[in-house]
Design brief:
- The protein has about 250 residues and is of the alpha/beta class.
- It has a single domain, classed as Aldolase class I (TIM Barrel, Alpha-Beta Barrel), CATH 3.20.20.
- Helices cover about 40% and strands about 20% of the residues.
- The protein has a nine-stranded parallel sheet.
- Helix 1 runs parallel beside helix 2 and helix 5 packs parallel to helix 6.
- The longest helix has 17 residues.
- It starts with a strand and ends in an 8-residue tail after the last helix.
Length: about 250
């Protein structure tokens, strides 16, 4: 699948770096670093931004980021407080903002939380069809890891709901939890090999899923430049070296 200037689902796993600055200057400086970093995509975590509620300011800054990051896929994300984000936003304001971003055409994908006011998704899906901006549907569990069947069913439900990319992240408490996440990823990828997935187990236990999740079917992984947006993210330069060592182009059938 094409995601802006990159293709996901084939070849090497693609690395996403988040921008988590609180001010415009911090975000611009981080974007300069990301533009030359070993990553293929950049996620703007707008919920970190101190002016996140000022839609005009957000859209203006997004124009700047698009120009700076033209060689990277650009993902727009407001992570809600319920799923580990920094600021509270109502369901109506959330979908209004995402729809404006999609209609602007200045991003390649928007993150849409699967469980957050799903009855409001219809207009966003229509806007996505009109603009060509991809929908990355996501679900995060910072307290536990469901069993493999439950994870697989959630990934499939996101695909059925219209996700171009389905993402699932969870917090493991033991090695078995990490195995459950990887097993679910493998099950879904085996069933629908051409539908992109992003999965990861968070925290120290889950680092292996960030480094080797592509073997089981995860098409993208997150790495950090300075501040991380979730527990367990590896530095982008260390990620590059690890992926080279792991022979990232070989995925077992």
């Amino acid at each position: 699948m094409q995601l802006g200037p990159i293709e996901i689902g084939q070849g090497q796993v693609k690395v996403i770096v988040p921008l988590v600055g609180r001010t415009r200057d911090e975000i611009i400086e981080a974007a300069k670093d990301a533009a030359v970093a070993p990553c293929q995509a950049v996620e703007w975590r707008v919920d970190y931004f101190e002016e996140a509620y000022a839609t005009g300011t957000v859209l203006g800054l997004l124009d700047e980021l698009r120009a700076m990051l033209e060689q990277k896929a650009l993902i727009f994300t407001w992570r809600t407080k319920q799923e580990g984000g920094q600021q509270i936003i109502s369901g109506e304001d959330y979908y209004t903002l995402l729809e404006k971003v999609v209609r602007s055409g200045q991003v390649d994908a928007v993150d849409v939380e699967f469980a957050y006011y799903p009855d409001k998704r219809a207009a966003l899906i229509e806007a996505s069809k009109a603009s060509g901006v991809r929908l990355l549907m996501s679900q995060h569990d910072f307290s536990r890891t469901p069993n493999a069947d439950r994870i697989a069913s959630q990934l499939l439900a996101m695909q059925e709901a219209g996700a171009h990319i389905a993402k699932f992240a969870c917090m493991p408490h033991n090695a078995g939890d990490v195995l459950a996440l990887l097993s679910a990823t493998y099950q879904v990828k085996k069933q629908y090999p051409k539908r992109p997935l992003i999965t990861m187990a968070m925290g120290e236990l889950g680092i292996i899923s960030r480094l080797g999740g592509y073997v089981f079917g995860s098409d993208m992984t997150f790495a950090s430049l300075g501040s991380a947006s979730a527990p367990g993210q590896v530095n982008a330069y260390q990620m590059r070296d690890a992926l080279l060592m792991l022979n990232r182009d070989n995925r077992n059938d």
